[in-house]
Amino acid sequence: MKRKWSFMIMVFILILVMAACGGGDDEGGETEGSEGNEASGDQQNLRISIGVNDSHPEYEGAVRFKELVEEQTDDFNVEVYHSGQIADDRAAVEMLQLGTLEITIPSTSPMVNFIPEYGVFDLPFTIPNEEVADQVLDGEFGDEMLDMLEDQGLVGLAWWENGFRNLTNDTRPVESVDDLNGLNVRTMENDIHMDAWSAMGANPTPMAFTELFTAMQQGTIDGQENPYPTIETSNYDEVQQYLSGTNHVYTPFVFLMDKELWDGFTEEQQTIIEEAALEAGEYNRERNREVAEESLETLQENMEYSEISEEELERFRESVEPVIENSRTDLGDEVVDRYLEEIEKHE
Ligand code: TK8
């Protein structure tokens, strides 16, 4: 009699355990491969695609966004995909427009393929420091630039930071604009960047960020330019010997979402997402500035670093002066003037 009872209890426990594990295999398989934007149950999946890897301050910001959203609501499941594993900047923006991706935080530079006016941010030697960048982006001008995204089926929620760009190459130390002569430099897919490097005497080659490391490793290009945190976290010091403190342009990151999806959210959901994008952006900028200093120190140990003198910087600036003037044809005087005025106001 006693044995019969214990057998029944064991069977009962077994049934309980099986139920807790979710039963059949088929269900488990589905959650693991959840690539679409419908998460299990009523949750909406928000996949974020970024081009840099998981050591970069942009990734830290994206994780902070996930935490902020998920601690306030169960409506969303945020997943961060780094290293361009979903797509590079430009393709990710196209995916947002097609509704096959929810969020991406690209550099503003590839955005010129959608909105030419975004080229103002590519005008070299215009923003002098991070404080001015913050004022320009967080003020009326930045808001208007975000509003322009709507016509493209995008919602821009916040400005994050990629940062001041600096040149690396594997051919020779670059200390003056003359040293750039004939150097094959990868640029982003952006006419102003290409024009600027041509004007400085280099050979610009536009390329997606995801192809860059291999191109340097194989020697198809001599150099590239990116902010210190990107150079360091992407291990470019393994394939590049020389680093120059050119600080030639400030590149913002812009937090983008698929507008159609956004329009379907309740006001409360929109507020949670927008505030999280802003707060995570603050954190991203703060971390980016700390990491930029640390990265420069590490890079100086592994590479030959050239500081550019004030006089030489002036020559760099002079050589790109025509690029700023020519950009007016594509961008229009209005946005160029407003951008330059905004900077001057806060300088
Ligand atoms: C990362 C890019 C990158 C950018 C570039 O997705 O392409 O060089 O500076 O950091 O946005």
Q: Compute the gyration radius: what is it?
A: 24 Å
Count of DSSP H/I helices: 13
The main β sheet shows up as: 6 strands, mixed
CATH architecture of the largest domain: 3-Layer(aba) Sandwich
> What ligands are attached or bound here?
D-xylonic acid
Q: What's the mean pLDDT score? A: 92
Task: Walk me through what this model shows.
The chain has helices at residues 2-20, 25-32, 57-72, 89-98, 130-138, 140-147, 191-199, 212-217, 228-233, 259-263, 267-302, 310-331, 333-346; strands spanning 44-49, 76-81, 103-104, 154-164, 166-169, 184-187, 203-206, 223-226, 242-244, 250-258, 304-306. It is α/β, with parallel strands linked by helices. Helix 5 crosses helix 13 (333-346) and helix 12 packs antiparallel against helix 13. The model is unreliable at 14-18 and 20-34 (pLDDT under 50). The structure holds D-xylonic acid (TK8). D-xylonic acid is lined by residues 51-52, 89, 106-107, 162, 188, 209, 226, 230, 251.
Jot down its keywords.
347 residues, D-Maltodextrin-Binding Protein, domain 2, 11 strands, 6-stranded mixed sheet, 5-stranded mixed sheet, alpha/beta, binds D-xylonic acid, 13 helices
